């Protein structure tokens, strides 16, 4: 009789990966990051555990988008006061004070919207510039089963 493998929390060993977002398309990069954070690239994937890895994204301010998304994509937030709807375009977000929030918003929409999703998102570290403070964890450059778009087009 075959038994389905289910990992225990003590068996999981998270790794650290670095992804350079310069020139990457926003949505395609976000799906790669969500895949790594969730742990679906591992044979020990367990749906009810945080079995994913840590992801450090650098150069988030140099992310690319296709079409007219810079001006047509709008982020909404509300202050909960009457007339408190705020609108921000993707261009304003990327040129503003926190350009990493565009990528964070895209990845957040791709993970679960529950407590496990909150724990998964806590493993995502996004930085606008080329440096990050996680050198002590010895992160490796992500070259997963589906290499990122920039690397696959460079090989052709």
From TrEMBL:
Signal peptide residues on this chain, from the entry's feature table: none
Domain of life of the organism encoding this protein: Bacteria
Chloroplast keyword on record: no
GO cellular component terms attached to this protein's record: ribosome
Keyword field: Ribonucleoprotein, Ribosomal protein
Subunit details: Part of the 50S ribosomal subunit.
UniProt cross-references to PANTHER family, sorted A to Z: LARGE RIBOSOMAL SUBUNIT PROTEIN UL13M, RIBOSOMAL PROTEIN L13
Physiological role: This protein is one of the early assembly proteins of the 50S ribosomal subunit, although it is not seen to bind rRNA by itself. It is important during the early stages of 50S assembly.
Family as reported in the entry's similarity comment: Belongs to the universal ribosomal protein uL13 family.
Designated name of the protein: Large ribosomal subunit protein uL13
